[in-house]
Amino acid sequence: MSRLPVADRAAVRRATLGLLGRDRRAVLVVLALHGAAAVAGLAAPWLLGSIVDQVAAGGSVATVDRLALAIGGSVLVQALLSRYAQYAGHRFGERAVARLREDFVRGTLALPVSVVERAGSGELATRSSVDVSTVGTTVRDVVPAIVIASVQLSLLFGAIFLLDPLLGVAALAGLPSIWAVTRWYLRRAGAAYLAEGAATAELTETLTTTAEGARTVEALRLADERIGHGTARIARLWATRRATLALRTVFFTVVEASYPLPIAAVLLVGGYLLSRDMVSLGAVVAAALYLQQAIEPLDRILQFTEQAQRGLASFARVLGVGQVPPEPPGRTSAPPGDRLVVRDARFSYGGGRDVLHGIDLEVRPGERLAIVGPSGAGKSTLARLLAGIDAPRHGVVSIGGCPVTELDPAERRRRIALVTQEHHVFIGSLRDNLAFAAPDATDEQMRSALVAVGADWYAELPDDLDTSLGDGARQLGAAEAQQLALARLVLADPHTLILDEATAALDPTTARRTERALAAVLTGRTVIAIAHRLNTAHDADRVAVLSDGRITELGSHDELVDAGGAYAALWRSWHP
Predict the structure, then answer these.
(1) Over 90: is that where the pLDDT of 191 sits?
(2) pTM across the whole model
């Protein structure tokens, strides 16, 4: 598995500013409302201090009542402003998250197929779900909370300095320890949370592939090996989570221990100043109340700092998807011919040993070629090279004299289509699922395509082409999903068709009927079939036998049977 890139800090910073800048007016409104709420919140402690001074000076009950009424009014104003600020903040956050999800989907759809497959389902699944959700929470809740709390703290400490500068200095007593532990934490948290995200992706990949291949695991008696593999991934995730937990334990312990220090310092300094008539009792009370108020926004900042680190790590992973270079535009003009030629093609995965060794092959326009061979011989790898999904390490694969990988991706997909045994049914109607292949297709063309591949089940659907498919709606079985994919293929109408065990999910009778129907529909087109049933090879114009990454036999069915080689032995085993 090849991991997708992760954005660096500079890229995350630019993207964050861009996300805020796209809705600058809403950000300013949110900040203004929260700033006004914070200013309104300063009134209550100051007014309470004034009440203390009035009582100490023998003030009238009416004066105290007016001050108490003013406190109630300030609290009400603060509550209303905070309420509307939170409302505006959540609206901004939801819009920002929606844009982020749309950008992520566009970036994911732009990924080259080879990159997606090498990354693995776990990597993309965690980035599209866990990471995007974490970033959404950070944008919607964490960032506004940190900004707002910072404004509140600035105003609260500013108010204490206005009461008395010495009380303001005393109020800073807890900041050195908080600053030191926060700096220590931030230096380590980013890497720790990235490691946790990578471990989560690896575990998701392991669980997904094990579940999807459960029958193979059981047949080959690999249960113990898969359990051991999964246990190792769980242990790695556990270790990364323990590492982040250890950071939080130190961080929050020091922070919590620092909270009482400024209040104690203000009371001590205030008592000393009060004994020398340098400050009023109301000022000391107001300063202590301001510090008590400061605990909540300070605690919010520090609590959300941990979530912000998790969010920044997730944001870096989300942005990394957009850093994968897109497929090069390539040649947009159609090549002059349709002959598919492979010359001395060699290929390896991830710089490992070659799995294809000097493949030479010519496929004539309109020819039906079957490729057979044992599992692991390189059949699917050769199909990917023919379709232009991967480029050979050495040699060339060309169509009409133009290297397949140099064609513009859209042009390549119009000319060459690869259909595997893995098919996806999108949430939506049957019409929507077919329209992916041919947006301009009429209903009649869609029905004809379904009939062509033997998908008789569509006639029994309650709403015909408008029947909803997918989660919470009509579920298609593996065979039905495969026929749906083949119907898309008929609508796409490519010149060259590569079938990589495209009928594997169908029972032999249905597969045979579907293959014959497809053969009739695709007359005149080049068809390359990775054959797992030798009936497909029997019907082909030529058969290529692949073994250990090499073509060992090439000829018609009859020629290969008469030659008495590997294909003949395989055919006799099928037809004793």
Answers:
(1) no
(2) 0.57
